[in-house]
Amino acid sequence: MKKIIVGIDFSRGSECAIELAIDMANKIKNSIKLVYVKSNIENDNDIKDKINKLIQRYSPTLTSSTMEYAIVEGKVSQELATMASTLDATMVVVGTHGTSGYEKDWIGRNAYKTIEETTCPVLTIRENFDFNKDLENIVLPIDSSMETRQKVPFAAKIATLFNSKIHILGLYTSGSIVTMVDKYVEQVEKFLEKYNIQYTTEKTGCENITNATLEYAENINADLIVIMTEQEKKLSNIMLGSYAQQMIHRSMVPVLTIHPDEINSAAR
């Protein structure tokens, strides 16, 4: 059985990551592996006691799979990436605290590094995310970069599993090629129609694609944003950090980040 890796540090953010991982695991029939990356001065028995309490609390909500754990030592992002690669994981789920509380816990500090170093999709979630709502609306931003469409199969698979609606957002920046964005949006529409996935389409001009995506996500009450690690590169964006980095620091809803060169195994 495929696995979902969850990075934990016993913060509320990592508990939210467990809850979201369970939602995903129940739909895609994966098991869950909790991973704690310890320092060399921590006591293994204390860590095991805390992890076992988490498993006792959350494992009953797993409908057809198991929850296990591993305690490793090293750099957080590297160890999560290694574990994901070794187990051929479907995805990694980690909590983050956003810009205001980014230094609070080690998972939050290492969320973006984990995305950089992990080849499978990484799902990040804020510690204050509201779980009292189904995964109904998925935002799919489309720009003029060649990689932008590679996230579509994974997003479509999630939409099918959760009966979600995908909201395509065509993004025109001052550096984008309008005809290219239109072409890509049309291709995405045809793909979703082929698999009978509900969708809407909106197009907008913008200077910063992060700002435009987050504003749109808030307007439609989004439950998930699916992005690539690579998007259009503009000087105004680069100075604020990469697109993915801005998104995971600022988004109030979960963000699924996909590398352009990875095979979307969950979409097979």
Please characterize this protein's 3D structure.
This protein is α/β, with parallel strands linked by helices and 268 residues long. It has helices at residues 12-28, 44-58, 76-87, 106-117, 152-162, 178-194, 209-219, 235-238, 243-250; strands at residues 3-7, 31-38, 67-73, 91-96, 122-126, 137-142, 165-172, 199-205, 224-228, 255-258. Strands 3-2-1-4-5-10-9-6-7-8 form a ten-stranded mixed β-sheet, sandwiched between helices. Strand 4 (91-96), helix 4 (106-117) and strand 5 (122-126) form a beta-alpha-beta unit. Helix 3 crosses helix 4 (106-117).
What's the structural blueprint in terms of helices and strands?
Blueprint: E1 3-7, H1 12-28, E2 31-38, H2 44-58, E3 67-73, H3 76-87, E4 91-96, H4 106-117, E5 122-126, E6 137-142, H5 152-162, E7 165-172, H6 178-194, E8 199-205, H7 209-219, E9 224-228, H8 235-238, H9 243-250, E10 255-258
Parallel strand pairs: 1-2, 1-4, 2-3, 4-5, 6-7, 6-9, 7-8, 9-10
Antiparallel strand pairs: 5-10
CATH architecture of the largest domain: 3-Layer(aba) Sandwich
The biggest sheet amounts to: 10 strands, mixed
Q: Superfamily at the CATH H level of the largest domain? A: HUPs
Strand order of the largest sheet: 3-2-1-4-5-10-9-6-7-8
In DSSP terms (H or I, runs of 4 or more residues), the helix count works out at 9
